[in-house]
Amino acid sequence: MPITALENPRGLRSITPYLFVQDPDKLIDFLKGAFDAEQTLRGARPDGTVMHAEVRIGDSSVMMGSPIGKFGPLRSSIYLYVKDCDAVYQQAIKAGGISVVEPDDMQTGERYGAITDPAGNIWW
What structural domains and CATH numbers belong to the chain? Predict the structure, then answer.
């Protein structure tokens, strides 16, 4: 039986990254500055920490929450397709990202670079 996406009223993709980060609000601010992300959902625990939040970048979403128990903080690596790699790379650096790989042309015909966000995730 093939795997199919469930009905999803929020329009998420079949696969959506979930990040457990120490400070989701800091990461959300970074993603807004670096990738023009839009926060679409935020739920807080009674102590005020982020239980669950979602941001939209382009046509995809990234979910995140504060660490809880054995879940986190965890680092990840995310590949993001953009129209202008060099411009987005510079925008991410200005937003506080740390360079991992400067933009370069690859044998696949793609051009990419990489930065690390404030939570330690690598964005390609």
Answer: 18-123 (3.10.180.10)
